[in-house]
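We close this part of the discussion by returning to an individual protein. The sequence in question and its structure tokens are set out directly beneath this paragraph:
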Amino acid sequence: AELFSRYFQAKTYCLCDIFSAAPPVTFSEIPEEDLFKSVVEQEELVLSCEVSRADGVVQWYKDGIEMQQSNKITIKAEGPYRRLKIISSGVEDSGEYVCDTADDSIFFHLTITVIKTYLCLFFLVRAAYISSSCCSFNTSVGGKGTVRTSGCCWHLL
């Protein structure tokens, strides 16, 4: 800057730094049901938040470790929205997720539920003669368990 004085005939020069502080990047309120998610294993999952500035930079963390984009995980920024998508969730994806800026953080809690399905096989037993007593036999189901029958009852062991 160049300064002039009424009293002196000399010019005075002054160097100064001008700092402009950008407003902080904060998150919009998120409903509690979106902060605590429970999904079934292998389902797609999206965690989403909205920042106060479209140019706001965020980092995603899972259990304190910074997340990176991969074949299974997509991280996107579209306008003020920030999204983390897990393509096919697994039990290992359960945990605490954080969307973090320099000025604010938002926490998500994710639970992955494993649903075990059993394939029921129907057995056809032919007998030339059926006695009045119940017959009983055991058989293996795909190496995962045993089916025991007694009369009309079938039990997965």
